[in-house]
Design goal:
Layout lengths: L5 E5 L8 E4 L9 E6 L2 E6 L24 E3 L6 E3 L5 E3 L12 E3 L4 E4 L10
Antiparallel strand pairs: 1-9, 2-3, 3-4, 5-6, 6-7, 8-9
Bound molecules: FE2/S2 (inorganic) cluster.
FE2/S2 (inorganic) cluster (FES) binds next to loops.
């Protein structure tokens, strides 16, 4: 990942109360998830802290529980708060998702900003 600002989508592409995955690195697999709650956007790396290299969705964009109240890891059912990313149930209780910094510009473009989007460490 280059240390640059990347446009993920337009705000209109993010339905309120839903989650979307993004593949800004063009790897063929989403590495960022974004949840919209009204005017607020919550962005995280799509990596479960239980096993740090595990993508969380069982199908594309399926990051939330049925009620849309928590982010879910499909692997072992961990639940994470949408606001803050803390694990509140499951095998990684007490850990948290890794946040990424998002910004919406005047045109409504949603940017992934560089300072908190670090390359994957293997
Ligand atoms: S890998 Fe996510 S809960 Fe186990």
């Amino acid at each position: 990942m280059q240390a640059t600002d990347i446009v993920l989508c337009h705000l209109d592409d993010l339905p309120d109360g839903e989650a979307r995955g993004f593949d800004p690195e063009g790897s063929g697999q989403d590495s960022i998830l974004v949840v919209r709650q009204g005017a607020r956007l919550h962005g995280y790396r799509d990596l479960c802290p239980h096993y740090g290299d595990t993508p969380m969705a069982w199908r594309r964009h399926a990051y939330l529980n049925a009620e849309g109240t928590y982010i879910v890891c499909a692997a072992h059912g961990a639940l994470f708060e949408i606001d803050g990313g803390a694990c509140v149930r499951g095998p990684c209780l007490g850990q948290a998702l890794t946040p990424v910094k998002l910004a919406v510009d005047a045109s409504g473009a949603v940017h992934l900003t560089a300072e908190q989007h670090h390359p994957k460490q293997d």
